[in-house]
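Give me the fold.
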Amino acid sequence: MLGHLRFGSTGTLVRVSAMIGACVTALVTMTTGATAHPHHHLTHYWPADRNTVDVVTGSHGILLNGARFGPGLVGSGSWKLDGLDDEVRFDDEFGDFGTSDFTVALAFKPSLGNRDEALISDMQECGLGPSLWNIRIIGGVVISEINDGENIDESLVGRTRVQDRKWHHAALVRHAGTIKLYVDGKLERSAVHQTIIDLHNDVALRTGAEPCSDISLTDPTFPFKPFAGRIDEQRIFDVALSRGQVHKIA
């Protein structure tokens, strides 16, 4: 919608800009719940409504390798990924959390069963390397890994079976040294560390792919693949959502 606006005068530009800001604020407030969670803690929100616009910042992601749009869980669309090499890529600062609290959440609908695949990641290489975090599907359940690149490597393994070609929701939450994985609004696993893992790196945020799934592009026998299916309602908060708040957006 924003790409089709035309401005005839300075006054018009000011009025339209104010209108856009009000609409974005209303959208964010409506989808997160202003009472349950102040919308100003939602730092990035991609509704995936047939675009890659972050409605909080106005920045755009990039559809790569033929990624398309398809029907979504909410709104008018989602990102449709073929499981071969499709992905959506974003600026590197979006997943760079350092030692801060955060929540990463997204809805997904797998189109293939019995397949290990990437959902969202901020990692430079497959295996040991700089600090990283990711959310994946492995063995039919959601798994999240957080690694400081040196001493701490924590994997949270979910319980809910998700490769049933239905919509599901995953959220990774960190509050100080506590890390939690939610699936479909329910807490599936948590871990506590005395040391807060520093998740600072300079790599792009990627949805639907990661360095480990990249291996399958040159080695088709490698079992971990890019995501095949649809992604919708991708959000990043700069606070740790409570169980009730995660349930509300799931």
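The radius of gyration is 18 Å.
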